[in-house]
Amino acid sequence: MSDPIVRFVGIGKTYDGVIRVVEALDLDVERGEFLTLLGPSGSGKTTTLMLLAGFETPTAGEILLEGKPLSRVPPYQRNIGMVFQNYALFPHMTIAENIGFPLSVRGVPAADIAKRVDRALGMVQLGGFGARRPAQLSGGQQQRVAVARALVFEPKLILMDEPLGALDKQLREQMQLEIRQLHQRLGVTMVYVTHDQAEALTMSDRIAVFHRGKIQQLDTPEQMYEYPKNAFVARFIGENNRLEGKLEAAADGRCTIRIAIGDTPIDGTLVETVPNGGAVTVSLRPERVQIRAAGHTIDGQPGCRLAGSLREIIYLGDHVRARVALAGNGEFMVKRPISEAHTLPHIGAAVEVFWTPEHCRAFAPES
Ligand code: ADP
Ligand code: MG
Q: Per CATH, the architecture of 6-232 is what?
């Protein structure tokens, strides 16, 4: 990890002089990576992208593009491609003219433009569509045109802001793979914005999770999913069974938690620093929880189980979900491979959900 193409150094942004929409942001974008800014609406993702594109100016800090302060690089020299959710195609131009537009404004000769437009159309699987107008294309095809227009001048950096938000689920998933493949084929650096965690996990080399203008965690999809660093990230990415409680004891990363429901303390992994007696939020992924009929003799791990009753079994083809009403209060969702479906207790049975302490993660509660 060296020679980043973009560096955000202490970037801050406020529109009204009061609310800090982006705060003390430090972020390196590595050359050739697919980096996703992921976060809920209003968390500052678009603002961060606009600062990088140069459509907004930071109120603190500096952004370096290829080592140069962005504030001193005029927009036409930035060589950044952009794709927006609303496509922003010119309705009166043909598809070929739309895609060729970034080339004609750069003074590329017409014969070259035609060749490069053809190649870009091929890349997004729209060969033969050049003479049509945007209105004659479906939403998915229009978005492909927008992607082709961002690629055609061979920028080193492409920014995409929720480009698939207007598409239906099936098309969105297909386009996710296409954009990912284009990224791999072209070796271009991508900074991609989405509020959809599944999309971020599917597409990215790294994900920066935003919340209230700050990066909560910057990690690979796998690390982000398996090792969330705080309660916000744990909640925002993937599914969770959550328990509230108080920290009873902690040593060497392991901890004991007195949970609000039920009398037996449970064991887990303490992720953040919390004082003894302090409030904690516990998160357990449904696929890390197992289930068995109550009353079996079990070895070890007394602190890694909770009693309840099995309420529902849901078959989902490749896996099965068991919904358990916990004895104290609340519910647990258990996700097991379909091969284990026949081993599940019957509905209504008294059961135990159980886990290993490394998969039971305790955080400071969300502020
Ligand atoms: P996201 O893309 O994560 O939804 P934004 O960067 O668009 O978040 O917005 C972050 C915050 O900044 C929001 O509270 C939004 O209302 C505010 N904001 C965004 N753009 C402007 C603007 N041009 N003027 C004033 N406030 C803005
Ligand atoms: Mg946005």
A: 3-Layer(aba) Sandwich (3.40)
